[in-house]
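The aim of this short unit is practical: by the end, you should be able to scan a pair of folded records and say something sensible about each. We start with the first protein, listed as its amino acid sequence and then its structure tokens.
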Amino acid sequence: MNALYTTYRPRTFEEVVGQKPIVSTLEHAITSKKIGHAYLFCGTRGTGKTTCARLFAKALLCERGLGNLPCGSCEACESIARSAHPDVFELDAASRTGVDNVRAEIIDHIKYAPIQGAFKVYIIDEVHMLTTAAFNALLKTLEEPPAYVVFILCTTDPQKIPATILSRVMRFDFHNLSLEDIRTQLAHVCEKEGFKAESQALTKIASHARGAMRDALALLEQASVYAGGVIREDLVSELLGELSEQSVYASAKALAQGDALSLFSEIDAAVSRGYDLVQLASDLALLLRDVYVVTMAQANAGTRGDASTVAALLKSGAALADLEALARAFRTPELVSKLLLCLSHGMSELKTAKNKRLSFELTCLELLSLVPKLNAAAVAAPAPVSAAAPIPARTTASAPAPAQKAAPVSAPAPAQTQVSAIS
């Protein structure tokens, strides 16, 4: 049995989700027969880079002929989908990084004509993993390949590709898929597979995928097995190891009150239940982000924006009343922004820390050190207004005392003059 992300891999350009500008450009290039010799597909994992590379290869070798979109069902298209076509070469640069691999698998074989179709297509995945010597060996071939050769380079890190390579390819940047695109596709898969799922559960899965369709489909398959029946939101939360919204809110409330013991108690409860502290930090950051939006809305009340605009910007799922309560506790947007910045730095360290609990607790201590200082300043701000009057009086009263003491100090000067006169 194939995985869901393999079963529902797009077989034609019409089935590609969320990459409309790229798909339209490739379709126009195919139908107008304006085929480039080298392409670079960039983007994060699970956004469709290798899938579109295979679809482009299908368009070049489909039995419909050049100038038509691939049918996805002929022998050539089926063999490409199975990675069995003799004229399509899929190379993994992560395991073939050296110059010898490039020479043996590309340069030495590129001079031979295609076996079945009109083109030879080289799909090089994770191309940024090639060494500098391998890139240099590929450079001349990439610049002036035979007319029947098309290169499609795929990478998740285009910054590591030499500029000499980038200048010789046509670049396409694949963006992360939207939450709605992923949720719609998940609902379609559930309908096809006979899964029963709550809408909130699909939304949570789509949110956790962070723009990667492959991750979303893999998680949906795992959730369907775990649920055994209806895929509910609470089951998905358990599967993902997420804390409840109440626990995250309690952590933010303890932070707003400067209550270190309560905050550490929430951390201890999360660890004892086996929850991921990285996820807790991420959820807390998302909640504070929404609190910042609410504090800004309160600060700009009556000047711009409305309730619907604010609601559209909120992403944590917390109730608006809870966010407003936290906004009143934190008082100023400046405090929340400093907390977010500090938490962001702490999350970067937390992901690679050996002792994640200690790392997160140290981050929380830094957060707590910010809260009382700014809150104390806000509380103490009105006090000097009423105390301003007595302060100058005290200063004035103490000023004459040093002046009276200063006179005797200078008195000996005339005495010395008299002594000198007598002598």
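Turning to the second protein, read its sequence before its tokens, just as you did above.
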Amino acid sequence: MAYVLISLGSNLGNRKRNIHGAFIELQKYLPKLYQSPLIETKAVLPWDSDPSWNLPYLNMICFGDTDLTMNEVWEIIRSAELICGRKPRQKNAPRQIDIDFLSYDQLIINDAQLDLMLPHPEINNRAFILRLASWIAPQLKINKQSQTFIEMFREFENNFPLWMGILNITPDSFSDGGKYQNLSAIKKQIKHLADHGSHFIDIGAESTRPGAAKLDPENEWKRLEPALKAFKSISIDYDIFPGLSLDSYHPQVISNALPYGVQIINDVSGLSDESIVFDIIGTNIKYVLMHSLSIPADKEFILNESIDPITYLYEWFSNKINRLIQLGLNHDQIIIDPGIGFGKSPKQSFEIISRVAELKKLNCLLMVGHSRKSFLADVCGNDMNKRDIETVNISNKLIANGVDIVRIHNMKKHAEHLNWSLK
């Protein structure tokens, strides 16, 4: 059994459909492949290229195990390009589909007859490959390199994150409680988040604002199930759709939700119940370990102001990560989230944001959820439009500090300010 790493790109025609078709073709022969989110990048062109070629690429990578030989995989890739409409064109010209064979286990090859070099010589130079590989297999090292994918990606100066859009189907959340209570509103928001660049949509049914009532698993599932069914039905109409993240800390709810294609478990309780991870051991499902002192949040119960919050969080995460690995999770599955606003004063929250890069030393994917939270009231009051603007400003700081996943409410405003498209 060997692992394969393959990238797919398109900058001509219906880019999502082109990539989706190529992935399906590869999966016919490589059924254990699973896919990354999509990333848009600018075309890299010589200065004297035809200006009409300057079309942005959508990119995806896929990763998985296979019993096939390297030669058999290479033939499958070349055949898939032809089946999916690739035609001979000038070098650097726009392409319906471009499939690159990045790596086959730890094999090193340079075969002119096959027109193949492995590992692909441009892996270390293409930020989008490292970004997506650091999502799928952050701890993987190829070609006996000393660095993992996540370490290599973090050496790039211009990092770019993955985006998680928020859908709260709660009657009492702090910024959008009651807004998505009927199925029509839920479907509209799912489509809105998908159409404005979300890589993941995080669906939650229990409010964690200060003073919120706790929800038992049975009632949480009653709220969640219709939204999950809506998510699944809408996804069928898209060639490529955001991944599903579940905001829950109840093991029973998580077990019920997994058949809907959950890719991320977002546990805001900080592993209050270890059985929460039992159903995802040995899978590709990610687990978000968020620091919290209480659920729901309690403004009176915060970290001691005399301690250094980053030093405290670093030690807390180290212990929890070790425990998760003892329980059977793979390091690649773990995402850490410092829990802005959960057991932190506004001053501590701002300090954590400014120093969040220090948590990258834990060598896990790093997520931050700061959107519209109450710590922003000292800056912009309770006006949610103003909070959205300040959220964008902080998102920019988080990107500069190398945060891997940014969790936000207003996807459209971020897309407008940061100028991206995944269509």
